[in-house]
Amino acid sequence: MSGIRLVVDVAGRRSTCATACAGLCTEDGLAAVLAADRALLLWRAMRRLGDSGLAEQAVQETLLRAWRSCAAFDESKGTVRTWLLAIERNILTDIARARAVRPADTGWDEISEISDVRFADPDFTERLVDGLLVADLLARLPESQRVAVVEVILRDRAYQEVADDFGVPVGTVKTRVHYALRSLRRLPIGA
Predict the structure, then answer these.
(1) pTM of the model
(2) Is domain 108-185 given the CATH code 1.10.10.10 in the classification?
């Protein structure tokens, strides 16, 4: 048993790990990898995804997959760092594909984050000011996003109906609305 070490996993189960493993199966090995490579993994994920929460999730998933397949590491193919970067690259690709295929639907709750509704029953002048504010915000969007927001949100039309009118896939309309609202949320409050 000279080439194998006994390891106890998180659930308390005993397993064997080859001596040529990545070293993630021990607390010291995992701590060393975290100290050496976590910042690089996080930087790459943040750069690719642009979202700190998703970047953290990608790094955690990378370390989890590496920990689970620790015994499969082959040092003749490269270092632990290059192995982790390859795992992360696959995870980042999966996340990017999932985000591209399913942009989030936009609901009225997200619209209320953009506007500053101070009264439940505004009078005429407040409606006029709100209308001017919305017009100003919409003018800051690219034409395709502005038209999508006006049709879907302000005119309360179905995504599919708008997509049919524009002659584009329904996913394109959803993406335009999603990115428009995301852009509006990033504007300064007084804008």
Answers:
(1) 0.47
(2) yes
